[in-house]
Specification:
The chain has about 260 residues and is an alpha/beta fold. The chain has helices at about 5-35, 45-70, 75-80, 115-125, 145-150, 170-180, 200-210, 210-215, 225-230; strands at about 85-90, 105-110, 135, 155-160, 180-195, 235-240, 240, 255-260.
């Protein structure tokens, strides 16, 4: 550990930087509501304010995170999606340009944050997927909302989840719902940040996590997402692993990477 003190310190400061950017986004949204829109009463709508502030935060950060994902092999993961796809939490559309259009029949983007929809539509159009991409404005746990958009159980060839399962309200319930959406033989494609296996780093995550979910759209730093997904149902093939790319075990944001294939 002694040889990694400096590297660890830099890694452990990264969540703090995220929090500061989020604070900056919240201040900008506060100014927007009070000084631009002149509707200070809207601050009482705390859920909407939090969603709008997070939208600002995400639009600031998404391009940089997308660059980092290239180094981690995410584009190849997304390009392996095929058939009818359900993309969980597409956000502003960082992944849409990474699909292989020749493999795609239809994509449903499940994005409850309305403040991200304009940028998502813009990126869908740039990717040439407007004819096959439908934005669904609800959470994956909203069964009735999904049905309104013809999202049915056992109807999908691929479920794509890129850094989203950290934020869902009930990980086990969501994992089970995603499992039900897949056809037998369907693939769940995953790239998620998870709880560290390193003792010191896991403590750092736990400390940050006291505040983190409350200001960053319910994101959790310390979820064992691989275990949650594996326990969601029976899998015929398990290619899920800690990221095979250059990540040290002690980093503040370790990832899992890969695919699970539904049995049947």
């Amino acid at each position: 550990m002694g040889l990694q003190v400096k590297q660890r310190a830099v890694s452990y400061l990264e969540p703090l930087i995220f929090l500061l950017i989020d604070l900056y986004a919240a201040i900008l949204e506060l100014f927007n509501v009070v000084l631009v829109k002149r509707r200070p009463q809207d601050l009482l709508k705390t859920t909407k304010f939090a969603d709008d502030a997070f939208s600002r935060f995400w639009l600031m950060l998404a391009p940089k995170l997308a660059e980092r994902e290239v180094e981690m092999g995410v584009p190849a993961l997304v390009a392996s999606a095929s058939g009818t796809v359900i993309e969980i939490g597409p956000g502003s559309g960082s992944q849409v340009g990474r699909y292989d259009p020749a493999k795609i029949t239809k994509i449903f983007g499940i994005e409850p944050n309305l403040g991200l929809h304009d940028k998502l539509r813009e990126n869908v159009k740039k990717a040439g997927l407007s004819d096959v991409y439908t934005i669904v404005p609800c959470g994956v746990e909203d069964v009735q909302g999904l049905r309104k958009h013809d999202v049915d159980q056992q109807a999908f060839d691929t479920v794509l989840s890129i850094q989203v399962l950290c934020c869902v309200p009930d990980p086990k319930e969501t994992a089970a719902a995603l499992y039900r959406l897949l056809k037998p033989g369907g693939k769940m494609i995953v790239y998620e940040h998870v709880k560290s296996r390193d003792f010191v780093s896991s403590i750092v995550q736990d400390i940050y996590n006291i505040v983190w979910p409350h200001v960053l759209a319910n994101c959790h730093l310390n979820r064992d997402t691989a275990r949650t997904l594996r326990e969601a149902g029976e899998w015929a093939k398990d290619d899920l692993e800690r990221s095979p790319f250059q990540e040290d075990a002690w980093q503040a944001f370790p990832h899992i990477w890969g695919r699970l294939t539904k049995a049947g």
